[in-house]
Amino acid sequence: MKHFSEQHIFGGVPPSRFVGRERETERLLKLSRGNGGLALLATPNSGSSELLRQVFDRLFAEQEDVIPVYFAVKASDGSALQAARRFLREFLVQTVAFRRRNAFILDASPDINEIAELAVPADALWIDRVIETAGEYGNDDEISRLRSFLSSPIRAAASGASVFIIVDDLHETANLSGGQILFEALTDLFRRCELPFVFCGHRRFLYGRTPFETMRVGRLSFADSGILAESLAAEYGVSLNEQTRDLIAVQLQGDPRFMNFLFASAADKSVGFDSFQQVETVYTDEIFGGRISRYFDAIFDSVAPDAASQSQLLGMIADLLNSDTNKASLEFWQAHTDLEFDGFRRVIAKLNDLEIISTTANSVGASPDSIVAADHIAARHRLNKESTARAQIVGEGLTNNIRRAPGLMAKFYRQLSAIGLREVMSRFDGREVASSLIEYGNFKSELKGMSDAEMQSSMTASEEKTTLPQIVYTAHSVAFYPQLGDLIDTERSAIALGFESGGDKDEIIWIAAEIDSKLEAAADLAEFWCDRLEMVAASCDFSAYKIWLVAPEGFSDDALRLIADRNAIGSSRRQVDLLICQFDGKTIPSSDTNSDEYEIVIPMGEDTEMIAAHTIEEIAKRHDFPAKTINQIKTALVEACINAAEHSHSPDRKIYQKFAVTDKKITITISNRGLRIADRAAKTVTSETGRRGWGLKLIQGLMDEVKVEQTDDGTRITMVKFVSR
């Protein structure tokens, strides 16, 4: 996203350092030029407030037509009327500052009379009228005064002003005296006007409470979290590598606030993030007593001011996190606290809003999605409950975090590679598809080994069809049967409820799992997973159900027979990819576009080119290349390595190699630093010792394509060999 100004007024960072949210920003900027409202449902700590402030700054700096107004509800307002009064003042001050093109007015805190004097002539009349109207109601008519304050932008619009209203932190109305009145007044007033506006608050607070179109803002994506980590590392002067960057992105789950805390702490300690241990050391300090700890302490202080109630709450949440079901009844919770009914309900509502817990009509559940919250709660609970020395508890927490880190990354990598069975099944829609798209036995006998065009033609012409169910609801399997989470990652198993036909009869439930197997899955593996998923069905009292197993390379013949006997379906990863293509209305993606890539770096000399030769041989065999083709590729690679070693005068004495392999070709890129071919006489290399070394001429004869490029500090050779099968 292009930023036109580096001015940041309300934003916490300059626009160029604001990471992600391009789509959301553009949508809000577009809304500012239209009419109607938007409810922005934000995950706590997702950075939604920074998003809104950045939008304000963009509008303030880059255009002169629409007056941007940003207002955040604060618990410190105390009452709804005081918040509404501050809203009026913020609206007028920001209007004057925008019209004057002077952001310093925002910091000057002018009083009402000064605001009127600062107004530009075009606005003076309606600003005077707004101020006058706001003072017309007596102290005994608070609701009328409140609505008068809040409707000031509407009166401004009636006088010709174009205004975009941004109201942030609406969940804080729950902490105000008369907060519900404030919320309802805002909703009612702006629902009936044509002003563009956005109301933002925690998603669990706002969900279903406004009639407006919604937009959701979650935490940053993994990619954007990595960019933010790199930006923070540069800002705080903290060293960072790719591995620790990714760990921070995964462990802090794209939470900008916690990431900022972590890097600030590292800067305070003058330590870098060059290893997992360094990251976990700083993180553990934050959990037990740093900024992260103080953040959660402030939450619990606001929820339950006395230490005894806090200790009770922390203990019960810790017990939930450690239980098999992660749930308990509301009745049980209330019985184990000293809070009276209304106070208990307020506490539960606030913890639910902050996503520390999850509540239903009669139960309380832990929110296991937040690693940081779970770690802090466990730490606080141990410190409160155990007589063990603090140093020991902190030390054990650190060792546990260090031990956990590789597992977190491994789990994340598995999640990245997951098919997404839940989403796939949600798109079944009662479609009729070729049976070869879902039944691996049919795929194996009819399609496997075909070209893309032949496969497309065969599926279109196939008379053997399978009708997929009409799915009405999907969820991850662990939502139905949490114990399954001990065997499989959440994203790799899902349950879909629906009907066999397009009507509302013949209910059916599909229980799907993506299982691991390097080759075609064997019968014993298929039996293991059929047993486990049947256990899920029995536990949930599913009567009519179908098991769907997906393995990377499909299933052996014995496994397919077992699967059929168990009223199940077996598919390969390729089939699911093809199924998704059919759902999307796309042609089959060429397998040639899906390449495996390998990289190695070898030192020059001492026959190290043979290491490269052995490597490419193993890679080519893995892809079933013919023996003659493999020998030609090996010889060409050896020649290229010898040329690099003997003629480049490389300063680092290294040869960098990349191999990209598809079913149809292999592309080899060899590069080195040192003399470029253009810097030296190009000649065929011979050797008195009998070593190979006939140079580029031989390479060109062995490979189908050869390209030599001069880099800034060396040479890069790209060789391509097509495979005839």
Outline the low-pLDDT stretches. 681-693
Determine the CATH topology of the largest domain. Answer: Rossmann fold
Tell me about the biggest sheet?
5 strands, parallel
Estimated helix fraction: 40-55%
| Widest sheet, order of strands | 2-3-4-1-5
Strand content: 15-25%
CATH class of the largest domain: Alpha Beta
Radius of gyration: 32 Å
Oligomeric form of this entry? single chain
Could you say what the CATH architecture of the largest domain is?
A: 3-Layer(aba) Sandwich
* Tally of alpha and pi helices: 30
**Would you tell me the structural class of the helices and strands?**
alpha/beta
DSSP, total strands:
20
In short:
α9 links the parallel β3 and β4. It contains 30 helices and 20 strands. Helix content is 49%, strand content 17%.
Describe what this molecule looks like in 3D.
With 725 residues, the protein is α/β, with parallel strands linked by helices. The chain folds into four domains: 15-217, P-loop containing nucleotide triphosphate hydrolases (Rossmann fold), CATH 3.40.50.300; 292-385, Arc Repressor Mutant, subunit A (Orthogonal Bundle); 421-584, no CATH class; 592-722, Histidine kinase-like ATPase, C-terminal domain (Heat Shock Protein 90), CATH 3.30.565. It has 30 helices and 20 strands. A five-stranded parallel β-sheet has the order 2-3-4-1-5, with helices on both faces. A five-stranded mixed β-sheet has the order 11-12-13-14-15. It has a five-stranded antiparallel β-sheet with strand order 16-17-18-20-19, covered by helices on one side. The longest helix is centred in the middle third of the chain and has 28 residues, at 390-417. The two termini are 46 Å apart. Mean pLDDT is 88; it is low at 681-693.
